[in-house]
Amino acid sequence: MKNDKPRETKLLIENLSKSYLVQSEEVRALQAINLSIADGEFVAIVGSSGCGKSTLLKIIAGLENGYTGTLLLGKERIAGPGLDRGMVFQEHRLLPWLTVENNISFGLKDRHSKASAKTVSEHLDLVGLSGFAQAYPYQLSGGMAQRVSIARALVNQPQLLLLDEPFGSLDALTKIQMQQEVLRIQEVEKTTMILVTHDIDEAIFLGDRVVVMSSRPGTIRKIIPVELARPRDRSSYEFAQIRRAVYQEFFVEAENPFAYQI
Fold this sequence. Notes:
It is a single chain. The chain has helices at about 55-60, 100-105, 115-125, 140-155, 170-190, 200-205, 235-255, and strands at about 10-20, 25-40, 40-45, 65-75, 75, 85-90, 160-165, 190-195, 210-215, 220-225. It is α/β, with parallel strands linked by helices. The protein folds into 2 domains: about 1-85 and about 160-255, Rossmann fold (3-Layer(aba) Sandwich), CATH 3.40.50; about 90-155, no CATH class. Helix 5 links the parallel strand 7 (about 160-165) and strand 8 (about 190-195). It is globular, with a radius of gyration of 19 Å. The two termini are about 35 Å apart.
């Protein structure tokens, strides 16, 4: 039986705007962003290059400041980086002189304790790398390195996992495998996730909702629900209909006379 009980709000963004100074000129990156994300939800954000989607993710991570508006994680205002948020970047950013095990444990407060060793071991199992604890980053494939970065982001049990185009540098087949892996991890951990991507199919495959952003200054053009059962069939008519709805938002904004055709 479907549980229709509303989920608690995990992240609340209200009227968020962000500007930069470039050669003494103000450049507005984000304009009046309003978004509420529920506990355990997977939200995908898409938009053209330079629309501010990665800036938005960095603000949520606490890596950017100087914005206006309200940003709450639970009931706490986000004022900087914190262990309650984990982030995975396009590049794995592993420390090459550390083993896989030590890369994952690097951010733990007491990484030399027995409890931390157990936590690291559990996360190695979670990402399917239990046999590679003593390997070094240069000995891993691109997909394996990203699994390590995901484990490192999750090891402190964050309330929110932020994914900034984490599969953009992978080949097509590895990318699909990693998308499936992230869904499996999300199902196990129940972690709230936000993905920024240029890949519309990826956004539809992973997200409970797809947030479509306008070009700069970035605003939310439309939020499209993805009410498809998992695992999702990318070749299905229903998937194609959602793809069409997302693409149409880009064509409308560009005032392109050619409508997107399936």
